[in-house]
Design goal:
- The complex is a heterodimer.
- Chain A has no helices and 11 strands.
- Chain A is mostly beta strands.
- In chain A, the strands form 2 sheets. In chain A, strands 2, 4, 5, 9, 10 and 11 form a 6-stranded mixed β-sheet that branches.
- In chain A, strand 7 and strand 8 form a beta hairpin.
- By secondary structure, chain B is mostly beta strands.
- Chain B is globular and about 40 Å long.
- Chain B starts with a strand and ends with a strand.
- The chains are: A mainly beta, B mainly beta.
- At the A-B interface, strand 5, strand 9 and strand 10 of A face strand 5, strand 9 and strand 10 of B.
Chain lengths: ~110, ~110
């Protein structure tokens, strides 16, 4: 079945530094979704990318979908302590296929 | 509108017992998916129900089963519990239309098997 690999598994940054997590697949993805899970919480939807080469921004967060639709990235500029949590990418293989998640990148921000 | 509700929030069970978890999706959502979350393993897909039919199933043993009722509420059952079944079980509901596939998660049920 479809799988998405996510790196790195952990990232520790000083507050104010940038952070990037990457999501890769060996097969072409129909779309890519990103979720954030705060410590002790549940995953919350951030964004969906559908088009090849698509770039979307949400304040300090920039999401990209690769030209070949096999990879994606989430970049956070000037991290803050509120960015702490685990970021997951997820993808649907097709119309009636399940939403499959990567293993996530756990971000720690040191103040 | 109300979010996804999972009950109970916490459970402690003994090896060999069985357990039933419940999930009430957002009103109007016909798709309910279940995930198992353990440290280091991320979110592992268990199964998805859509309009009372199991549409997809993950790679879990037959001890894990589920169902969906006509009001879209879903239950999952784990029989003959093992220590390794200790995890956070998350339910997600979605419209699952062509344009809207966003998943909304419940708070989860924390299951501990002793």
């Amino acid at each position: 079945g479809q799988q998405v690999m996510q790196i790195p598994q952990y990232q520790h940054v000083q507050e104010g530094e940038d952070f990037t997590t990457y999501c890769n697949s060996s097969t072409t993805l129909s779309n890519i979704q990103w979720y954030k899970q705060r410590p002790g919480g549940h995953p919350v939807f951030l964004i969906q990318l559908v088009k090849s080469g698509e770039v979307k921004k949400q304040k300090r967060l920039t999401f990209q979908f690769g030209e070949a639709k096999k990879n994606s990235s989430l970049h956070i500029t000037a991290t803050q302590t509120t960015d702490v949590g685990t970021y997951f990418c997820a993808s649907l293989g097709g119309r009636n296929t399940p939403l499959v998640f990567g293993k996530g990148t756990r971000l720690s921000v040191i103040a | 509108k109300a979010g996804v509700t999972q009950t109970p929030r916490y459970l402690i069970k003994t090896r060999g017992q069985q357990v039933t978890l419940s999930c009430s999706p957002i009103s109007g959502h016909r798709s309910v998916s279940w995930y198992q979350q353990t440290p280091g393993q991320g979110l592992q897909f268990l199964f998805e129900y859509f309009s009372e039919t199991q549409r997809n199933k993950g790679n879990f043993p037959g001890r894990f089963s589920g169902r969906q009722f006509s009001n879209s509420r879903s239950e999952m059952n784990v029989s003959t519990l093992e220590l390794g079944d200790s995890a956070l079980y998350l339910c997600a509901s979605s419209l699952r239309t062509e344009k809207n596939t966003e998943a909304f998660f419940g708070q989860g049920t924390r299951l501990t098997v002793v």
